[in-house]
Each structure stands twice: as C-alpha cells, then as structure tokens.
Amino acid sequence: MRIELQRVQFMPKVLKPGILYFAEEYGAAAHLCACGCGAKIRTPIGPTEWSIDDGPKGVSLCPSVGNWQHPCRSHYWIADGEIEWSGEWTDEHIKAGREREAAQRTKYYAAGQTDKRKLGILRRLWRRLFQ
Questions:
Q1: Do 30 and 43 form a contact (C-beta atoms < 8 A)?
Q2: pLDDT digits over 41-97, tens only?
Q3: Which residues neighbour 130 within 8 Å (Cβ) at sequence distance 6 or greater?
Q4: Which is the most buried residue in 46, 65, 70, 97, by most CB within 10 A?
Q5: Which of the 8 DSSP states describes residue 16?
C-alpha cells in the first residue's frame, strides 16, 4: 500500500485510506490503520514523539506505528511512502517500549529543551482535536 502525505489545517472527520494527514500547526498526524481494520491512528509530531519526513521517494513516519490499543495490534513503519510490516510485540515488549519512551520524554523535558508555555498550548489543542 502506498501512503501519501496530505497537509491540512484541521484533521478531516472522515479519513481516507492511503493518506497520512499532517496538521503541522498543531503537531498532529493521523491515518487509517495499514491493516485495513479502519481504526484511526493518531500520532503526535514533536521532538519526543514521532517525526515526519517528506522525502523525494515519499513520506516517512518515525518511529514505527504500534497499534497496541486496537484489536488488530498492527505494527509497521511508513517509509518512503510505503508500509513496511514489522514483527508482533508481546505485552512485555510493549510495556518496555512505553517505559523507554517515557524515560526519553522525562530526560528531554528535564533538560529544559522546550518552552513550557508552547507545550501547554499544544496539549490543549491536541485534546481539543482528538478527545
């Protein structure tokens, strides 16, 4: 499946397959799960979250997408506009991955590498858009 980047001001209510929507102003991306289950996958974009690269071969989203909270539990990369399937993770792998990510965020923010006021605004906007 080919994935194309579509820059938007606001996330559409209905997502189309094969599109990675990116609202740069709000640091948010969304797409439909690559397995075809129809789940909406939302990824925050930022220095401690995911990053998007719109390269000459196509869009890449890094790190991988692990849909652990959905029944499909799909795990894949979006690289150069293509889906690259990754191996399944056990519950132990998922827990360790989440702990590693939390530690990285804590270290990043403890180092004072962010403007606290901006972070608050982004959190409020994220909640407004997706909750």
A1: yes
A2: 999 999 889 999 999 999 999 999 998 889 999 999 999 999 999 988 888 988 888
A3: 11, 28, 42
A4: 65
A5: P
Instruction: Identify the band that residue 16 occupies on the pLDDT scale cut at 50, 70 and 90.
Output: very high
Identity of the amino acid at 109: Y
Q: Positive or negative CA dihedral for 36, 88, 130, 10?
A: negative
| Residue 61 burial (CB count, 10 A) | 23
Read off the tokens for 70.
Answer: 């959905």
Closest CA to 108 of 119, 92, 96: 119
Neighbours of 125 (CB within 10 A): 15
Of the chain, the end-to-end C-alpha distance in Å amounts to 29
Q: Quick one: tokens of 34? A: 């690559």
Global pTM reads 0.78
